[in-house]
Amino acid sequence: MNSINRDLIFGPNSLDIPHMIPHVSFPSQHSMSNKEISLLILTDIIGSRTQLRMHHTISKDVDASAATKPMLNIQKPLSKGKGQSIWAFYLRHLANIYATPNIMIKDADKVIELDSITVNVSPSGLTADLHHDVGHGCATLVQGKRLWIMYPPTASNLAALWESYGKYTSIPGSNISNTFSRLCDGVAFLQTQGQTLLVPPLSAHTVFTLHTSILIGREVYLKRSFPQRLRNEKLQVAWMNIDRDSTNKAQKEYNHREV
Q1: What is the pLDDT of residues 220-229, one digit of tens each?
Q2: Which whole-number Å values give the CA distances from 14 to 120, 222, 223, in the listed order?
């Protein structure tokens, strides 16, 4: 993978190329350690009345008691817990001090929308199965260690990703396992504490949590990538159907247990 020229495969612009961004996530809190920031994030989660969302490929549980399990051993790097992950939780308090990387917003007139700041809390051993994002993503790891494998949005890779969504299962890692041989020109990133990764739109990726992790970030929607999104709208529709069907199934199973 190291021999691949990412500039030629992913695109000519730095926003098209996945790479680590020199970035200070909380400039107004420059004296705080990553551990202190992690504790503030957990405090924000605990104090919220918002229903916590579980990673639908890992756990069928949707109740708050299941969602709190990843936090019990959050300070233990190799704690696997029971596989649950708090997924896409919207931060309210820390969102006001998180700094979006300047490379993504330096031309304000070219920004369509800034998505909300979210956080994922994942135990060691969790796999975020093969998927894509439609915006330019910035992902800051404030605690832990993660391995990313990312593929360029070529026609063949997008076709393989779309077909994989049609055969999606809830077995962790099955999507990347079944599709891996059809994907080409992947690159790998080992992300450690404090690093921010730029994730280009429509770049299929899978993430392996090596150490219990807290990941914070947002998506930025730019005018330059909107035509690309329109051309591949069926990919987003397929992914949204998976998310909707999995959430509905989990909710029905939870309601059945309550009855």
Answers
A1: 999 999 999 9
A2: 26, 14, 15
